[in-house]
Amino acid sequence: MSNLDRAAVPSVCGGRGFVVAEPVRELLSPRRVRLGESTEVRRLLPNLGRRMVGAWAFVDHYGPDDIADEPGMQVPPHPHMGLQTVSWLHEGEVLHRDSTGSLQTIRPRELGLMTSGRAISHSEESPASHARFLHGAQLWVALPDAHRHTDPRFEHHAALPTATAPGLTATVVLGSLDGSVSPGTTYTPLVGADLSLSDGADVRIPLEPDFEYAVLSMSGETHVDGVPLLPGSMLYLGCGRTELPLRAESDAGLMLLGGEPFEEELVMWWNFIGRTQDDITQAREDWMSGSRFGDVKGYDGGRLDAPELPPVPLKPRGRVH
Fold this sequence. Notes:
The protein is mainly beta. It has one domain: Sandwich (Jelly Rolls), CATH 2.60.120.10. GO terms for molecular function: metal ion binding. This is Pirin family protein.
């Protein structure tokens, strides 16, 4: 998924200096952003005060939207560099096309994982014949410097491992949780897990004390470490935890995101993650000139132009403002 903000501003993130090295309860409010013709997303990362959680650098939550009489998601071809995209649905379906030739319909609880590496372009759209509701999350994972120029690739995993407890089913989307390991390719120690809780569930999730964590509420009413969490909001939890108490006041869905704090400082602008101003400037020039990022075949429409670069220098500064 693209950042379609036409007045894109740089996000400076990464580095351990701003990691909270102890448990906290920091509630992150979303910013609403229009995405295509009929989709509005709630952007949780990058946030005004918090830019990353482990290597997770971008989180959008959308829906549930009634698109029975709408085109649904329509995101034209656009570029990515230096990151992985994670597509995760609770309802609906998304048709993915990319410049490596991938063509894949992603359905609920299936992992669509795109590694941009040095350069890729893709489009995302609701199929012409689609389900009534669209509900999901789009996330980015920053690639470490040693792997950010890797070959682009797309993975689709329809079957993912699960861990269960009374009232809880945890699907391991990426990384590992409680001994269950996702087949998705990762480049840093992290976890992304979808947590389905039944009404009245009262459970504890095992955590890694060296990881920092956040929880995104997808649906229902829950208490995360005693904090009420409503859909479309995210609670940052810091580091130093060995478990996380969860209580559901209704059937509910959460996403647990975590990982080792990302040591490198980054520059994130539009759909690119680099290390310097020159990285971003060159990527924009390459996209606008039609080089490096390839072509998306089969999409019915034009591609997105990159916004203008800001007049101020882009500098990596750390994880928070």
